[in-house]
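I had to read the description of the data format several times before I understood it. In essence, backbone conformation is discretised, so a fold becomes a row of integers matching the chain in length. I therefore recommend that a typical entry be quoted early in the introduction. For illustration, here is how one protein appears when written out as sequence plus structure tokens.

***
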Amino acid sequence: MARLRASLRTPQVVPALVILLQAQQALAHPFVYRRDPNNGTGARQLLAPQNAVPQSIEGLETTSWPSTTCTTITGWHTTYTISQIQDGQVQAPGFGPTSLPDKSVVTTSTSEALVTTETTIIEGVTVTSTATREVTSTISSTIEADTDSTSALSSTSTAVLAAQVSNSTLSSSSTNESSSTSLPSSTNFTTITSSTTPASVEASPTPTPSTSTTLLDVTEASTTVAVSTISSTTTIVVSTSVPDISLTSLTTSAIQTATVPVLTNTTGIIQTSLEAGGNPTTVPLPTSVVNVTSSLSLVDTSTLSNVVPTNTANITSITASDIFRAIATSAPPPQITSRGDHPVAQKGIQPQSERIGTNSFHANLFLADQAYPVYTFPYSVSWSNGTGQTGSYGMAVSHTERNQLAFGADEPNTGAWKFYANPIGIQSVVLSATQLGQGTKLTTDSLTSFSVNVNLTPGGASSPAVSFPLVQGMGFMTGSYHGSTPTVSSGIGINSITYGGALAGNAVYKYRMALANGFTWLIYVIPETTNYNVNSFTLLSANTVQGPSGFNGYIQVAKIPGGNSDAESIYDSAAGAYPFSTSVSGAVEGSGGSYSLTFNKTGMQTQDLLMFALPHHVESFAQSTANGLTSLQLITTTKGFGIAVRADSWTLVEDDLPIGMSFAPWRAGQGSIASVSSAATALINQVGAAELNQNITLQTDLDSMYYSGKGFAKFAALIYALHDIGGDRTLALTGLLELENALATFVNNQQPYPLVFDSKWGGVVSSATFATGDSGLDFGNTYYNDHHFHYGYFVYAAAVIGYLDPTWLTKGTNKAWIDTLVRDYANPVTNDPDFPFSRNFDWFHGHSWAAGLFASADGKNQESSSEDTMASYAIKMWGKITDDTAMEARGNLMLSIQARSLRNYYLYTNDNAVEPAQFIGNKAAGILFENKIDHTTYFGTNIEYIEGIHMIPLMPFSTFTRNATFVQQEWDTYFSNGRVNSITGGWRGLLIANQAIIDPQASYNFFSGSDGLYQDSFLDGGASRTWYLAYSAGLGGAPAGTKVKREDILEVEQETMEAPIEPKTLRRRVSGRRRSSTR
């Protein structure tokens, strides 16, 4: 890991950074960062025994108020130490005689109760506590505690508590399952000590902590982890539930304040490593190039008179009034057999007719333990399931600020952050019900690409206590209650709650909840009935607000950003309305297109619907939608500020679609370029003839859909270049017949791992995992990873074949097989019985997600933005060749949306104002997650890998999505002044092909051999020298007319590109290989 830093500044206190060192082999995150609580003030939770409600504990001062809601413990002190780090091990001595579990809830209602809690507080150490107590009434008690997980507990430094509770017997034990944490053998020796001391019962300002820092250098893959220690002050709060009779009704503006100092917790977890599950271990470039020993046998073209290319004259306009039209309605071709035993269960999913998106934002809710967050932007939402500071079983909504980011050490070449990530696990607000406890079940229904409905049902119950409609961009977190007793909790701590009165004709009741981190959240209560007891919500403790029993209605919460005086009134105008789903529609007319996101609204129809738009949305809003922009902004995790919009639907416009882009090199202002100099034509044919001697079958009939697809695309581009640019029909048709024969193996489903139709999830997947049990084979294809990458190459190759030989489209199941691949990754309708809508491309985010059925704490992710756009380009060209105008139009619109999204979130020019200024120097994102961006790859950290994965493959669309300004800045940052010459292998050829976008002459000189630098080893097995020659020549390296100058390229681009909105303007307007969490 890189040395972590945390930008956690507060006006008064220098923050401390705490790193949780976990076992090296621990799944998904060998290093986890935990942020200081209290926004960097150093306050931390205190470990305490919590097996029963204390009445008397030897050596401790306790205070009880039987008629009130709180019991506090003070005077308990503990110190813990990592005694030594040596020989690559963190030595963790055994526990002392007193157990220190993280949390326990004791509920007693008879004369005797037995509770056993098993909790891991330090990686590898399990603590078991038991408590038996006689009581005469029902009390639910919670003592919340935390430990600085960078430390192991030493038996010599752990305070021994002789706990003697009257009428109780307390026994504790601890089991040291693993007393060491593996670190590299070169780890430096250091000692870290941390202590915590509780505050007194009296309400008083939190004292300024003393903070000391010790760095722990871990030498592993040239990375370092920083470890800090803190001393701090805090209070333990024991909260108890109370009956309705003790709830109060406040007058407007009356304030309830916590009766004890607030227990704050802004501790979060940062995943600083890439999560396991199908990740790649090898570079995604095929390396084998198999040549045949005999000379190429040319076909007799006189026998192929019916093989005539379709008419692809440059067109400038398309008309498609509805771009979301079904591709096909029949089942996949019969050679793709069906099976229903996919190894991933549909956990908690209720039956529905619409197929479920495996790569959608809500997948964490039906994967693993269902507790990882889902990211709606700007909020994240997760099922607490008894964990975290609150111990609630409800749904937690979290929002983090930029000053809470953790970020990696500066990159050596640029000084930019290596990564940045938002802490997870902070329970800003939790909506729950008292009926929810152990045994609570989470189910989902109404799953679409944009939304999901989440239900929490008490153990043993048949209907949910509360439901949560989650929609991308939602302005409020909404909980719908079904006759249950609501609770609103916060793991940060509640300073006070203020009743704000009734709104919307006395239909909405408002509260302001001030949290301990200085931010205020609004609570809106909307009861179903008119006989609601006004203001029945009461602050019970510094962590919990409780409402009346038998409540029917819904509760909404939203965060007020700092420094925005209009935010509250904007929220007020929309409270009571919320979306339950979203639908998308679109059309293309001429050279422009538009799409609309319609939010299906429920609740109070008279209230405005408030949704948050991302930067790429705002840039493309139609004026009618832009009129709804407000001054309310919340920072999102990875996509700049979300801006609140009052509107039931958005219309977004893309004015300059790449309609005329075909198979030839393409540049804005010039269109497709199939004419090059005569010298270039001769060289293209000469090199092409040599490369056709390679064995096409041996480079395509592989056990990987990804590598096979790349092989097909390689030869398709080569054959096209020979036909349309080289003008050698004989060579081209000779290669074409070989390519058709090779693809027939896959169409007939006779490849090493045939495709199967997965009837459980709805998709065509590789049978590799079914055959081997290895979920990571072929980049996790069986688990729906990377389908658009894999299948996009096949679709492109088929489009080239269908262009050169239209008769191929009518033979057998050729077209049906390719259509099936398109339906799998880019299905345009929601009522297809076999495939979900738009598995990969996210119409809200404007790009695709590659990760499939693998749970991830950081949400969905995608690595290769260029293979993403390749998939869209492929369906554009397949639609063009098959006369599917809706598909062709949709592909054009998707490319335009992706170009906009990529320049905001993936490919950073120097004036990018969306991502943190400290990160854009990296130029390319690396891997974009919903919750973090990591400037790396799954297969290595070489800069040519990180930047190059966003180049591959170089195709006509590359100049559209990778504009010359960006390419020039990226080149100057990493590869200029001869630095590219130090790069070897296929990445060298890729980088030089990319150079053609800004300096086609230099690129052509390289591939033509005129500069003396070219070697065949600089081509990877998925690229051809023939295509690179045609590409660089067409872009200006060897044009048919006047040569193109670099400065002319940049000038034309500036004239044809739509300028992004300036930040100031925006403010004025709105006041066998593994690859899983993938590329």
Remarks:
- The longest strand covers residues 577-590.
- Residues 657-1035 form a domain with the Glycosyltransferase fold (CATH 1.50.10).
- The chain has 20 helices and 56 strands.
